[in-house]
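Supplementary Methods S3. Input chains for the assembly prediction are listed below.
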Amino acid sequence: MTSREQILAKVLQHQPDAQPLPADSSTVFPASNPLESFATVLRNIGGSCIEVDDYQAVQRYINDNFPGQRIVSTLTELSAISEQGWENQDPHSYADIDLAVISAHFGVAENAALWITEQLMHQRAVPFICQQLAVVLNRSEIVQTMHDAYEKIGNTDYGFGSFIAGPSKTADIEQSLVLGAHGPKGMTVFLLG
Amino acid sequence: MSLGTKDHAALSDIFNKDEARVDWHDETLWFVRAKRDKAANSIPEWESLREAASQIKNNVLSNLHDYLIEFENQAKINGVTVHWAADAAEHNQIVHAILKRHNVDRLIKSKSMLTEECHLNEYLSKQNIDVIDTDLGERIVQLAKEPPSHIVLPCIHKKKEEIGELFHEHLGTPEGMADPVFLTAAAREHLRETFLTRKAAITGVNFAVAETGEFVVCTNEGNADMGAHLADVHIACMGIEKIIPKRKNLGVFLRLLTRSATGQPITTYSSHFKKPRPGQEMHIVLVDNGRTTQLSRPDFRNSLKCIRCAACMNTCPVYRRSGGHSYHTAVAGPIGSILAPNLDMKEYADLPFASTLCGSCTNVCPVKINIHEQLYKWRQVIVKEGYADPKKKVAMKVMELTLSSPTIYKNAGKAGRWVMKYAPFTVNNKLNLWYQQREMPEVPKESFGEWFKKNKKND
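Predicted structure tokens for the full assembly:
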């Protein structure tokens, strides 16, 4: 008997009588202003929230705050200020990206997490390996809680997707919070529209 | 980690020698517990979320056979190779075989309590494979050649000055430098170099979805993602109990996990791995290692519902004052004390006794495991099976006799009061464990029974 057969046989023998799944959970107490709630939580977890009217404003902000840096973006609207032809390189070559600008499918008001699948990353390593991450989010794309988030994701197919909430962080040394453990040291969310 | 014949009480004595550190450890973990309370209290429907999580996990345990097969099928369709390991040894061999096939002799690993349980690092180092732990806390204890003392905060027992010394020795930071920001930046540089040069990455698994074959890994540092997305081979190791039925169930668990663990609304990264990226190999190792045995014990099986948030440790008055290493097992604290005896009842016979049974662990558990009741039940099993400390057994027998006979009880009380009054040195000495940390009480003139009799007459 293989280990697989052995394990499955033991599980079948010992698992308790069938217990039903509970009813699906849903948002019970929606935030009155999800946009404000999203922005507040994002600031609390070390990110910054910039409200912009259009991509022109995003460009201006990046030019002012990240001058002379290696900038890559998955957004064609930002091609004027970002490197071209970076997409199909070995992901190790992204180690010196200063700023990566990508977009998110939607944000979650209760925890400021942004749902981003690999289709929006081009390469999976991008939002993790860059020194600073910026994400453009349409301000109408904010859901209340994680229940609504999975409702929205539904049964979409993806190879990889991640909820990203703020910059990389650690508190492993005496519980002192430090931003920028391995991933980005900062995260800027541009709320568009 | 086995510490030979030392039990929790003896190991706690070692930890308790440094009183200032114990106080600091206690306060730090209580601070984390307070953050958990604040986060939980900000969700008005918290209790119904816990109930939903508990019911989903009950459903998982009762359908585990089918869910495992569904998960395996979906993962295969996604292009992932699925392996099954009956025990720790087989798990380690499977991992080793994959590495060997790729000629890998150095790899990185993000946090996985399962690989701690299986002692994978020791095994691989014997095969001349170098493992670098990438979670900052785990890297610190790895440099110190120690196991993690806490499943979420692996080096919570260490002071920043000690970490500064370790980094000075291993990473070349300036002597005496103990600033957390500086030390974290040094580790970032050191580990970034490692991420860029390793071809294989091991991660743990927080949740595996039967419906879709995907698995979710949660970190704050981003180390699991840095490792997995740069490596040619990604091996994810998980216990068979990590399965959940549907993707949407993640909504319930991700709302509970980090709020219970650290009081954060969610981890920075909750990454859903479904398919390998083009050119990458992805493996999942499903491990039993005693879990089916625990499933066969009706009193203890729901310990398998655990999502490893560590809320029970942070709240536990015994854990906070005895430190994780006193539990001499990979998963310390109250939950570890009900998981470990399943693996080895003799080796871990002391752990269910390392509790006051106050029930705080049960109250904070996000999946409603009746932890303190299971600790109490394990004590009975351990005594019945003959694994209890013989001294404890004799003491219990004497107590049983005394409490079941009113005459012996009365006389014992009298004798006790007489001894404490006229021969206090017989109790106020080092042999009396109670006297070691406290003064003995003043001797009452009479027992309550005697007082009651007298005062009733006076009525």
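Residues 238 and 395 of chain B are 42 Å apart (CA to CA). The first strand of chain B starts at residue 81 and ends at 85.
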